[in-house]
Structures are given as structure tokens and as C-alpha cells.
């Protein structure tokens, strides 16, 4: 496997090089500190994996990865960053892994072994379809992979969106509008400026003040409001 490292901090770059060289057979063909230089290199050279920081000059790591993900031959992207708030964007572009600094030796070694195993297997063209029903959320400083179908509702609290399943509460550092854009619209509805609801989890539709509705959900004791501005679209969706 051929790889490049994109990291503008010398010590972080040297540490990563040490682990790659000592715990894998991955070849490091070049190193970069600037996102624009990476684009120029990738246009002329093929690599199998990019170890990528987010906070880099000229073109940040997320934008760089989004550009690379449009290439016909896509390398694996491994984010190694101190910024946890970009995990959802990393999922959307199908990043291979998302590792938070400061990372442990065991975490890096495990990622390298998984990367080599995945590369050595025959390419699975159905990989994308298998993971599109997953989403990365945060709980107790950890990224938790959650089935989208298990989400019941979401609430906006300032710039953070809180996501609720039957038994758990998670969060994501996106506005509710930004998070809504990541969800499948055939399953989720923005029923209120502060709420998203999973349509399949609605158990009862209760008439409320000013001709609005409250929605009782399956399995949990919680009601989600439908605002007047979203009432017409909700009625169309629910055939009311």
C-alpha cells in the first residue's frame, strides 16, 4: 500500500511515521503540510491511503477529503485530528477511520492492521450500501455508530443537536438544519424548528392548541410537537 501523510505539526507527523513504519507494511511516499499541495500531488500520482489532519493550511482536511472523494479512484481516508465535531462529515464521505488526538498506541496499531486487512480483501462493491444506514454520534467523548432506523427524535439546543433512541441520548455538533440534511427524508421529518421526528416511530397524532399536533412515539413516554408552519406538509406525509 502506498500512503501519504498530511499533517502540519512536525512531532505529530514523526510519531505517525514511526507507527506506520514499525507496525505495518504501508509505504509512505510523501508528506505534506498544505492541502493545495495534496490536490496537485493526487492529480498526478495514485495512493492507496491518506492519513489526514483537519487543521492544515490553504484547504482544511474535510474540504480536501470531500474533493478527493469525487476522484474516480478513491484512496482510503484516515482522519487523525483533535476536532471531534467533524465526525459526521467524515462518515458522509466514507472515511476509513476517525482517530482523535491524543491517540493511544493500541488505537493506531489496530487501525493499521484493519487497514491492511481491508486492502488485501477483494473489493466489495456493496460496501457503500451496507453502511448507509449508519451514523456517527457522540456520547461520553466517544464516537458511537448508531443505526439510523433506531433514532426516534432529535432536539436542537443552540449549535448542538441531541439525538434520542429508545434508551440512549447522543449528541452531534451540528445545527439541527445541518444534521437534518444528513438524514434520509423518507424516514425523518423536520416537524418543528427545534425538532426532527422519525415518522416510522409515531404511535399517536394528538390534536393540540392552535390546530397543531403533538406526536406520541412508540416505546417511549415523550411527545414531539408539530409547528403550524410545518402542519400542511405533515398532513400530506401522513395522509390526514
UniProtKB/TrEMBL annotation:
HTH LytTR-type domain ranges (all copies): 135-240
Keywords: Phosphoprotein
4-aspartylphosphate carried by residues: 53
GO molecular function: DNA binding; phosphorelay response regulator activity
Domain Response regulatory, residue spans: 2-116
Domain of life from the UniProt record: Bacteria
Record-linked InterPro entries: LytR-like, LytTR_DNA-bd_dom, Sig_transdc_resp-reg_receiver
Protein name (database record): Response regulator transcription factor
Species annotation: Clostridium thailandense
Lineage: Bacteria, Bacillati, Bacillota, Clostridia, Eubacteriales
Amino acid at each position: 500500500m502506498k500512503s501519504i501523510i498530511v499533517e502540519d505539526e512536525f512531532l505529530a507527523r514523526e510519531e505517525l511515521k514511526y507507527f506506520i513504519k514499525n507496525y505495518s507494511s504501508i509505504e509512505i511516499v510523501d508528506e505534506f503540510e498544505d492541502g493545495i499541495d495534496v490536490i496537485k500531488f493526487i492529480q498526478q500520482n495514485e495512493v492507496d491511503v491518506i492519513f489526514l489532519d483537519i487543521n492544515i493550511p490553504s484547504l482544511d482536511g474535510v474540504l480536501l477529503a470531500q474533493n478527493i472523494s469525487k476522484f474516480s479512484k478513491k484512496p482510503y481516508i484516515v482522519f487523525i485530528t483533535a476536532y471531534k465535531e467533524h465526525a459526521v462529515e467524515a462518515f458522509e464521505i466514507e472515511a476509513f477511520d476517525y482517530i482523535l488526538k491524543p491517540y493511544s498506541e493500541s488505537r493506531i496499531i489496530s487501525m493499521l492492521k484493519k487497514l491492511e486487512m481491508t486492502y488485501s480483501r477483494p473489493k466489495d462493491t456493496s460496501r457503500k450500501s451496507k453502511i448507509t444506514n449508519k451514523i456517527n454520534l457522540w456520547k461520553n467523548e466517544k464516537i458511537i455508530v448508531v443505526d439510523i432506523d433506531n433514532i426516534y427524535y432529535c432536539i436542537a439546543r443552540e449549535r448542538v443537536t441531541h439525538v434520542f433512541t429508545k434508551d440512549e441520548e447522543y449528541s452531534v455538533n451540528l445545527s439541527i438544519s445541518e444534521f437534518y440534511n444528513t438524514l434520509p427524508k423518507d424516514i425523518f421529518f423536520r416537524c418543528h424548528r427545534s425538532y426532527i421526528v422519525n415518522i416510522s416511530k409515531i404511535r399517536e397524532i394528538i390534536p393540540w392548541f392552535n390546530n397543531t399536533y403533538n406526536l406520541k412515539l412508540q416505546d417511549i413516554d415523550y411527545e414531539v410537537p408539530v409547528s403550524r408552519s410545518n402542519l400542511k406538509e405533515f398532513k400530506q406525509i401522513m395522509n390526514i
